[in-house]
Request: fold
Amino acid sequence: DLCIILVTSVLSQTANKVVVSGNSFIANIVIPTVKYQDTKKGKFVERNYYEFEDYSKPGEYILPSFHYVFAIPANSKPGITVIEKKESPYSNTIPAVNPLLKRLNDSTLVKDYKSVKKESDVSVKPDFEVESYFWYRDFYCVSIKINSHKFNTQKNEISSIRSIKLKFTFPDNISLLEQSKIKTKELFDREIKKLLFNSDIAEQFRDVNRKTQLSDSTYQWINFNSNYIKVSVVQD
Reply:
């Protein structure tokens, strides 16, 4: 018999914050609450983090991860290390896998869990991964992926990170301000505040002199066989 239980994990309510020290800052990241559904299968519990299903990856384990964006000095590549983390292990617990979507007809898709081939020989992922460096308007940023939930295939154990502290260290000639909140110079700055984890110290990284407009007088970007839509905007 299968026993299905709906469970919401309990996480710390400590506020996210950033602490600056000399040429580095520490980001205290509290992982959001994750919902899951447990199904008893023999001596194991199958845990389905259903909000993180990815139908483009049938057969892969459903394991939550979270993405955070940090503003950093222009064109820098900080050293990033984990200095502290709190996590909870769940023994005899295995993650559910992403289902295969099948089309019954033009309007109906169904999830197929039986036909998918489960992952095998999976190594435990690192606590975090650097996804990319990029410019976002006047700010140079780094995108970090936190692998908050990991599965140890040898132990049949899921570990869940509740909070993690990442230290970003820059060259010695860079000295950071302890407070530098983003200034609302235009309406879009309100959205940037929501995007950047370290918005309270990000204004010092703004590069207002960066050239962001490119001209192309050759019109090579135009494909005259395609249709285009001209959209009006209130301001540049």
